[in-house]
């Protein structure tokens, strides 16, 4: 198959761009490297387009591999023809290929197989012609006790079994039936009798039906989960009459005779016994894949926004993992996140050693020159925040809440044990909270993304597809920000283009044995880090105060000579170029265009010279919850409160308002205008103002609104009933995950 032409047509780019991208990918280049440092080769394809080429290429290669297996199987049976070979070669989807292969696919012993063994296939052929004949007399010729055909009806039944199999294997009919299921079928769920109480969380699906083609991903996954847990019965079919009518139009002749009546009976049997189960399985797999893709897209976008949260930066931080009975675990960290001190304090009930705890906090803040205090947002978080803020610390000390989702997972992980073998789990959790404030990206890469709390139905979707998407997201974020090689953890280095866990570990070990790296070129001394890995990784690694000034920038070492020539032409140094806007404005980029370097790369270089190693993340802003609103019992309808978006789903956004239970802003209440996709107007970690619409303390459900006048449509439903608001699930310019999902949609996944 000519992959370049097909993919270029689907993605609407030139075949030469696709061809070049495929060659780079096959040569081991990563998506971040290709999109950042090979713009001239690919015609400036961006990260989303390069990833789309990669994924579509894999799909097409998988299809070709399956075609080879099908051809081999049919040839071994001695049934291959030129027409059949051509139909296999031109099959564009896996479903079409499997339809073609179905009649030749090795089967278990079926009813049709048994009928053939009894010699009934000639009878089936006679009947399937649908010509007028004496059906009983014809069938009587096949009654043979030796072949275990003991009656006319048994002969006719066997013939119908064979005809039913032919009908099921009809390629054209299967295509039309698949379309009928997808376009006119419905998901219909019912509660399993006697399980009404056990299945109460699925109450909205006890008697539910909606079209397959419009069912949103979260409801598809919810119904499937209810079925898996044996609470719901789920069907996904069109009306049976419509399906039978389609089959009759395709199979039956206009004449009315005994043969036609036998074929009519075979059609009913083929649908109920073979075609309906087969199509339902296919459709359920297709809709599951589509629902998975949407859930994964939402998860990946939420993760991207979380990873790219604003960092506080290198400051001395005190981190507190709050608690009541067991006390608050307090740690002090240095500007690079190094662990300095641990203490347990008991400012709350039942010990209530408030004065003593206050003296400890103030003393440690002074001793370690603490510049910020990070407090986990779990149990006792708001109470601990109030306690710290009442201590009279210097106004220069930032006090802020930090989302601690996944901190407990980190504290019990191999990563945490390796970092802090002598510290208790709870102390490691406090360290994680503090480091998240300093640099969310560097800390969150140590945790399985599924434990961070920004997914929706993440345990129900295809786990391999989820892992690939999240790995892509993390790699994109890490390489987009850049990594300081002398302070980065092994986990962070693992996601750098071209490295992986082995080389990341080798870099850390080399750094520990030989001291900080003084240049990028020194990376070539790391065991097993060869020229190829260096080429892929070097541009994304930063070395502050390196010998060469460009080592702290995003300029790739392969372009150092070019930048040095620019400086030389101006009678200046590279350092001069980086510090002088006037000098940079004098650079005529056209003078440096060559076969290998074009304007796109030269413009990137100029941007890097202006802001070497710039961090694309937003600046950190202190956030504060409403004082006096600490629990769900403090909430009143109509309250206007500050909050932080913790999760985005297909049906709205969850917002932390500081009461230990996130509230839901339904899609219809995200803005004064119609919103189709929550990501149009909101992001994870975004600071928002919300109005409390309803409070159900018993079920821990909080309804919120971001509308300027939310009560103007008081009668309007806040949320679809199936959205579980007590659960804590999952820009103007579409994100990488969104763009990739849209591109995938063009060619079926």
Automatic annotation (TrEMBL):
It holds the Pfam family Tex_central_region. Residues 710-726 have a biased composition (Basic and acidic residues). SMART domains: S1, YqgFc. It comes from Algoriphagus hitonicola. One of its GO terms (biological process) is nucleobase-containing compound metabolic process. Signal peptide: none annotated. The lineage of its organism: Bacteria, Pseudomonadati, Bacteroidota, Cytophagia, Cytophagales. Residues 709-737 are annotated as: Disordered. InterPro entries: HHH_9, NA-bd_OB-fold, Ribos_protein_bS1-like, RNaseH-like_sf, RuvA_2-like, S1_domain, S1_Tex, Tex-like_central_region. It comes from the Bacteria. This is S1 motif domain-containing protein. One of its GO terms (cellular component) is cytoplasm. PANTHER family: 30S RIBOSOMAL PROTEIN S1 (PTHR10724), S1 RNA-BINDING DOMAIN-CONTAINING PROTEIN 1 (PTHR10724:SF10). GO terms for molecular function: mRNA binding; structural constituent of ribosome. Keywords: Coiled coil.
